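Blackboard transcription, Thursday session:
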Amino acid sequence: MSGDRRPRPGATGPPDRRPTRVQSADVSVPNESKGERTRRKLLEAAEQVLVTYDYHDASIAKITEAAGVAQGTFYLYFSSKKDIFDQVVAELNRQVRHAMTEAARGATSRLEAERLGFAGFFRFTREHPALYRVIRQAEFVSPSALRNHYEKIAEGYLSPLQDAMATGEVTLGDPMILAWSLMAVGEAIGMRWIIWDEGKEVPAEVFEEMMKIITRMLGGSGHAESTEGLVNTTTRRRGEKV
Amino acid sequence: MSGDRRPRPGATGPPDRRPTRVQSADVSVPNESKGERTRRKLLEAAEQVLVTYDYHDASIAKITEAAGVAQGTFYLYFSSKKDIFDQVVAELNRQVRHAMTEAARGATSRLEAERLGFAGFFRFTREHPALYRVIRQAEFVSPSALRNHYEKIAEGYLSPLQDAMATGEVTLGDPMILAWSLMAVGEAIGMRWIIWDEGKEVPAEVFEEMMKIITRMLGGSGHAESTEGLVNTTTRRRGEKV
Amino acid sequence: MSGDRRPRPGATGPPDRRPTRVQSADVSVPNESKGERTRRKLLEAAEQVLVTYDYHDASIAKITEAAGVAQGTFYLYFSSKKDIFDQVVAELNRQVRHAMTEAARGATSRLEAERLGFAGFFRFTREHPALYRVIRQAEFVSPSALRNHYEKIAEGYLSPLQDAMATGEVTLGDPMILAWSLMAVGEAIGMRWIIWDEGKEVPAEVFEEMMKIITRMLGGSGHAESTEGLVNTTTRRRGEKV
Amino acid sequence: MSGDRRPRPGATGPPDRRPTRVQSADVSVPNESKGERTRRKLLEAAEQVLVTYDYHDASIAKITEAAGVAQGTFYLYFSSKKDIFDQVVAELNRQVRHAMTEAARGATSRLEAERLGFAGFFRFTREHPALYRVIRQAEFVSPSALRNHYEKIAEGYLSPLQDAMATGEVTLGDPMILAWSLMAVGEAIGMRWIIWDEGKEVPAEVFEEMMKIITRMLGGSGHAESTEGLVNTTTRRRGEKV
DNA sequence: AATGAATGAGCTTTCATTCAT
DNA sequence: AATGAATGAAAGCTCATTCAT
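(Written on the board underneath:)
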C-alpha cells in the first residue's frame, strides 16, 4: 500500500485493541475545514473501534469517545450508525484497491503483479485489520456494501486477467471465477496468518507456498515465464483505476 | 450430504427465510427423552433463526418462539446465548464435514474426491445456509469456535492431501496451505453463487470452471489421471472422523 | 359517575399532581391474574402521570415509576407509548360515557337528563382531570383517538335528542349539531371552572347560569316542562349503552 | 377577516401542510429593518411549522429552516422555544380578535354581529389552522398563554353582550358564562368541520343550524328582531381592538 | 420439566441551547 | 447581524437473564 504514507494508528506494530482516542486525528490536513476534520476524525475512530468490536458493540458512544467529540456531533456528519459503517467499508475498499494496484504497478509479468499485489494486500490487512472485521459482518449489516466490495475488487481483476489469458500467460477460462478464487485465497491466508496471529506478517514460507499455488492457478502455456517480455507491457497498463 | 437423512426444513427447495415455528421439531426420535427433544428443538430453532438474523438480532425470544417453548426453558438447556451459538457452530461443523467425506467416499482419485467433496459442500450450503451466516459472525461472537471450525476442516484435508502428494497425484508442498486455499475457493464460490443468489445451485459452468482451477491447484505429475487406480484406496481411507 | 365506586386516587379532593406511586394499584381485584394487575397498575399510573405531564414529558420512566415496576415491564403490556395513551383515552371515554348515562338515568325529562348528565360530567372531570388533559393533546398524538372520543359521545347524544325532538321537548333541527354544541359548552365550563380552578366544583351560580343557556339551546315547544310526564318514559329508555 | 390583508401562504386554498420555506417572508414591509424582517420571518415560520407539528416536534431546526436562517440566529430574537410559542399565540390571538370584530363591524343587530363574527372566526380558522393547533397544546406548554387567549376573547364579548342584555336583545344573565358558551360552540364547530375536514369551509347547512342554536342561546325578548334598530348602534360601538 | 413475568442496563437518536467566528 | 459546529442530557425501546411457581 505504497500510496498511503500518512502514518496511521497501529500501522507498524500489532493493532492496538483499545478503542482510545484516535491519534492521527489531530494532524491537520491543508485546506480542510473544521467540519471536514471532525468528519475524518469520526471515520477514523469508527474504523478503529470496528477492529475490536462488532457492529452492535461498536456503539456511537465508543466511536465519539474515540474521536473526542460529543455524541450529538456524530449525527452532524452521519445519518446513522449504518451510514458510517457503509462509509468505512467504502473507504477501506477504495484504499485496499489503491494499495493493491499501487503495489503491482512496476510488475513485468502477471505473476509478478500477483506477487506484488498479494504482498500489498497483506500489508494493507496488517495496517487496516478493520477491513477484514468489517467485511465479515457486512453480510448482515449492509449486504449491498458487501457485494459492492467484492465485486469492485473482482472487476478490477477482470481485464488484467483477460489480457494475460490473451497472451497465454494465464490459462484461458472464465476470468471472473478465477478472480474470485484468487481473492478467496488471499483473504483466507490473510485471515489465518495475519488476523489470527494478531497483526504478524505472513511468514515468508507461507507466502512462497501460497505463491506456488497461485502460480498453478494462473496456469499459463507452461512457458509463461519465457513470454514475460511480451506480456508485461500489457500488464503494466492494467488495473490502475481505483 | 448423503449422511444426513434426517428430514430438515427447507431441505429440498430453497431455504425458508421465515423464522417461524420449527417444523421437524415434533418428529420424535426413538429413545429420545422429552428433555432431549426440547434441546434439539431449541438447537434447530437457533439454526433457523440464525439464517435470517445476525447474532444480536437472533434473540432468545425469537429462538424460543421458533422452538415453541417458553423463554425460561431456554436456560434449562443452554447456559447463555453464546453457548447455543457455539453449539450450533459445532453441530454444523460436524455435519458439513460428514457431508463432505460422505460425498467423497466413492472417489477413485483425489481429483474426483475433490469434485465430489465440493459438490457435497455446496449441497450442504444450500440446505444449511446458517453455516455460512454463522461462520461470518463467529469472528466476534466466538473466535475460538471460528478457529476450531476452519482448523477441523483443514485438518481433515491434511492426510488425504499428504497421501496424494506421496503418490504424485498432487504437487508436493505444504498441505496445510493447500488445504486452506481449497477451502477458501469453495467458500467464496458458495457465497457468490449460492448465498447471494438465495439458495440457487451453483451453475454447472461455474462449477466446471472452478474445477479446472482446483485441478490446477492440485497440480500433480501431469498424468495423475492415469494413477487413479492406485490412489483411490488411499483416498478412501482418509478424513472420515467426524 | 355513580357507576365507578372503586376509590380512586385524588377522587374526592383536588387532584394530586405528584406522579408518585399509584395508591390504588395494590388493591387486588378478584379473579385478576398477576399480569392483569400489572397492566392495570400501568394504565392507572399513566392516567395519573398524564394529569401533570404532557405526552412527551410523560415518560415511560415516570409511568413505570408511578406503577412501581421496571421500565422493561412496560413493554410486556403495551407496545409503545402511543399504545398506552390510546388505551387511556379509550378507557376514560368508556368511563365518562358510563358516568354521564348513569347520572342521567332517573331523569323524567330531557332537560332533567341534561342537568344530571352535565353534573355527572363535571363530577367525572374533577375525579379524572386526565380526561381533559389527554383530549387536549390527542389531536397530535393520536388523531383517531380524538375523533373517536368526540364522535362516541356525540352519537350517544343522538337518539335521546331525536326522541326529544319528536315529542317537541326539544326544538326540531339537526341533532348532531346540537349534540356538538352541548358537548362544547360542557367542556368549556369544565375547563374554566374545574381544571383552571384546580379541581374545585363548578360553582352553583355558574352551573345554574349554564343550565339556563342549555335550556334555551334545547328550545322546545315552550311548554316542554309541562310535557315532562310524557317524555320521560322515552328518555329513560335511551342512550344507556356504553 | 377583512382586517388582515397581508397576503399569507395558503390564504385562499386549503392550508399548506408542508413546513417548507415561508413564502411571504421575503415580502418587504416598509420601514422594516433587517432585524425586524428576520424576526417576522421566524414568527411566521413558527406558525407554519406549528400547523403540522406539535410543540415538541416543532424543533428550532425546523423553524429556522423554514425561515431560511441559521439555527443560532433564532436566539438573537427569541429567548427560548417557549418564548416564540407564546408570541405566536399572542399574535394569533390579536389577529383572530381583530378578524372577528372587523367581520362584525357593519352588523345592525347582536344576532347579525354574531353571524358575521362566527363567519369571520371560521374564515380565520381556515387561514390560520395554527391557532387551533396551538391552543390545543397551550394547556401544558404555556398555561398562562392559554388562559390569556380565552379570557381576552371572552372579555371582548362582555360589553357587547351586556349592552344587548340591556336592550333586551339578549336574555338577561351572566354575560361571561354566555360568552364562554358561545366561544365553545364556535370552537367545536370549527374543529369538527374545518380542522377535521382539512381546511374545508363549514357547510352552509351546518352554519345555519349552528346559527339557530346560537340564536336560541342569545334568547332575547322574543321580538329581538324588531328591536334591531335600537340595538345596533350600541353593538357597533363595542368590542373592539385589544 | 416448564413456565412467563419481571428486571434494568444499555442502545441509538433527537434537540434546545451555546459560542467562537 | 448572522452563522453553524458542538454539546450532552434524556428519550423510547430491546433483550439476555433470573426466579417464583
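Lecturer's comment: Chain C is about 65% helix and 0% strand.
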